[in-house]
């Protein structure tokens, strides 16, 4: 998992939050459980939504003085 690698290899502790966004409840449920079991110290948030509406999700688009990595998987 990309986030797991990032957290383990960071030169200093970094504040990482994982947001899972998809229109499918089934897919979100499927990936949420392994994510929280693998990333014990990383908050995992799920958002039921549409990628076409990405600008509407303030928690994903507001700059909070940190790096953001977006990975879209279809």
Structural class: alpha+beta
Number of helices: 3
For the sheet with most strands, the description reads: 2 strands, parallel
Low-confidence stretches: none
Shape: globular
Strand order of the largest sheet: 1-2
Instruction: From the alpha carbons, calculate the radius of gyration and give it in angstroms.
Output: 13 Å
Helix content: 25-40%
Distance N terminus to C terminus?
16 Å
Mean pLDDT: 81
Features of the shown structure:
74 residues, alpha+beta, two-stranded parallel sheet, 3 helices, 2 strands, 35% helix, 14% strand
Write the layout of secondary structure elements.
Blueprint: H1 2-9, E1 18-22, H2 25-38, E2 44-48, H3 58-61
Task: Provide a compact summary of the structure.
With 74 residues, the protein is α+β, with helices and mostly antiparallel strands. 35% of the residues lie in helices and 14% in strands.
Provide a descriptive summary of the structure in words.
The chain has 74 residues and is an alpha+beta fold. The chain has one domain (13-74). Helix content is 35%, strand content 14%. The protein has three helices and two strands, in the order αβαβα. A two-stranded parallel ribbon has the order 1-2. β1, α2 (25-38) and β2 form a beta-alpha-beta unit. The protein starts with a helix and ends in a 13-residue tail after the last helix.
């Amino acid at each position: 998992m990309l986030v797991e690698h990032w957290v383990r290899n960071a030169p200093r502790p970094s504040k990482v939050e994982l947001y899972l966004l998809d229109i499918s409840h089934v897919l979100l449920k499927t990936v949420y459980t392994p994510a929280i079991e693998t990333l014990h110290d990383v908050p995992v948030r799920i958002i039921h939504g549409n990628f076409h509406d990405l600008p509407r999700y303030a928690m994903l688009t507001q700059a909070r003085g940190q790096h953001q990595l977006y990975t879209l998987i279809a």
